[in-house]
Amino acid sequence: MTQQSVIQSGDVVHITGARPNFPKAAPVIAALAAAGVAQKLIHTGQHYDEALSESFFQILDLPKPDLNLGVGSGSHATQTAAIMVGIESAIGNSKPAMIVVYGDVNSTVAAALVAAKLGILVAHVEAGLRSFDLTMPEEINRKLTDQLSDLLLITSPEAKDNLEREGLGDREIFFVGNSMIDTLLAHLHEFDEKKIASKLNLDGDYAVATLHRPANVDELETAKDIVSALGQVSEQTQIILPLHPRGKESLMQAGLAKFDQIKVIEPLNYIDFISLVKGAKFVITDSGGVQEETTILKVPCLTLRPNTERPITITHGTNQLVTVSDLVKRVANLSPVKDVVPPLWDGTAGERIAAAIIEFLGRK
After folding, report:
1. pLDDT of residue 278
2. Can you list the alpha helix ranges (DSSP code H) found in 98-157?
3. How far apart are CA 116 and CA 62, in angstroms?
4. 357 contacts 99 by C-beta, under 8 angstroms
C-alpha cells in the first residue's frame, strides 16, 4: 500500500508519536469507532523504543497504525520536518474530515501545521495547557498547535482562560476532561505493584524518578546537581529510575552510577510503569503526564521544575513543585496526599471528545 492510498477523504486521522500520546488517543479512537466513524491512525515513530511505543498499541488495544513514519530521533527541526513531509505524503490528494492531535510533542505541532496549510480541520486534545515558560520546547508546541486548531478540547477549567487570553475565545472550546485518565482507570485492575517489585527484585519502600526535560539533563552542571540531590534522597529511600533514552548519557556522566541505592532500569511498558508508580512511596519527576497519573493514584509527586502546565495537579492532586536545592528537605517533609479528583477526570473523557468531534463535523 502506498502512502498516498492510506488516507481516504472523509477520514478522521489521529496522529500519535510519543509515549504520552498513546493513552490519550486510545479512548478517543475507541469511542469514535463505537459511533461508526471512519478513522485512520498515523504513528510518526517519534519514540521508537519498543517499551515506549509498539508495546503500547498491544496493551492499550490501539488499532495497528495504518502508517508508521519511523522518523526516529534528531534535532527538533530535523524531527519536525521529517514528520511534516511524511504526513503530507500520507494525505496525498485526499481530504480527511479532520486531523486529531494530542498533547505537546513535535508530532503534535508538525501535524497541525501540515493540516492547517492544506485546509484540513484540526482538533487538539489537551488544548490550553500553559507553563508560561518559553524555554520549554513543549510550551512552544502547545501555543502554536492551539493557534492552528479549529476544535480545542480542554482537560481542566483554567485552560479556557489561557486560550481566551491568547485571543482564541471565539474558537470551539469544549471542556471534556482527561482521556489519559480514562486509560488509567480502565486498566486499574491490571496495575500490580507486588508483581513489578518482584520482577525488579525490590525489597521494602522505594521511590520512582523520571527525568528527561532538556533544562534538567542537557547541561552537565545542572545534571550533577540533580544527581547529587537524588543521591542524598536515596540514602533514606531507594530510588528506581527508568531512564528515557534522552538524558541517559548526561546523567551517567554526572555520576549517577556511583549511588548504590539508585537503581537505573530500562524504560518500562505502560502497565509495568504505572504498577511501579502505584507502589512507590513518592515520585520525583519532570514529566507532565506523571503529575496527572500520581494525582489519580494518590502518590505524592515532587515535580523538579519551576513551573507546571498542569496546575490542577497541585490544587486538586498530589503534586508540588520543587527545586534541586530543596528536594531533600521536601522529601523529608512530605504531606499526606489530597483525596480530591479534578473535575471530569472520571473515565469517560474519550466519549465526550468523540461526541464533540462528531457534533463539530456535523455542523461543518
Report:
1. 98
2. 106-117, 137-148
3. 26
4. no
State the 10-residue block means of pLDDT for the chain, 364 residues long: 68 93 96 98 78 73 90 87 95 95 96 97 98 95 98 98 97 98 97 98 96 91 96 97 83 95 94 97 97 97 97 96 97 90 97 98 92
Place of cell 537524588: 230
Q: Which is it for strands 238-242 and 262-265: parallel, antiparallel or unpaired?
A: parallel
Q: Where are the beta strands (DSSP E) in 69-111?
A: 98-102
Closest CA to 359 of 199, 123, 48: 123
Cβ atoms of 347 and 181 within 8 Å: the answer is yes
**Domains annotated on the chain, with CATH:** 3-178+345-363 (3.40.50.2000), 190-332 (3.40.50.2000)
Under DSSP, the state recorded for 210 is E
Q: What is the DSSP string of 337-356?
A: PP----TT-SS-HHHHHHHH
**What is the C-alpha separation between 192 and 93, in angstroms, rounded?**
47
pLDDT confidence of residue 339: 86
Distances (CA, A) of 241 to 113, 139, 210: 35, 25, 6
What span, in angstroms and rounded, lies between the C-alpha atoms of 99 and 153? Answer: 13
> Which residues are designated catalytic?
212
What confidence score (pLDDT) does residue 50 get? 57
Longest dimension (CA), the chain: 61
- Phi–psi pair at 203, nearest 5 degrees: -130, 115
Per residue in 55-92, pLDDT tens? 778 888 889 999 999 888 888 899 999 999 999 999 99
Using CB atoms within 10 Å of the CB of residue 29, give its burial: 0 to 12 exposed, 13 to 18 middle, 19+ buried.
buried
For 13-69, the DSSP string reads: EEEE-STTHHHHHHHHHHHHHHTT--EEEEE--SS-STTTTHHHHHHTTPPPPSEE-
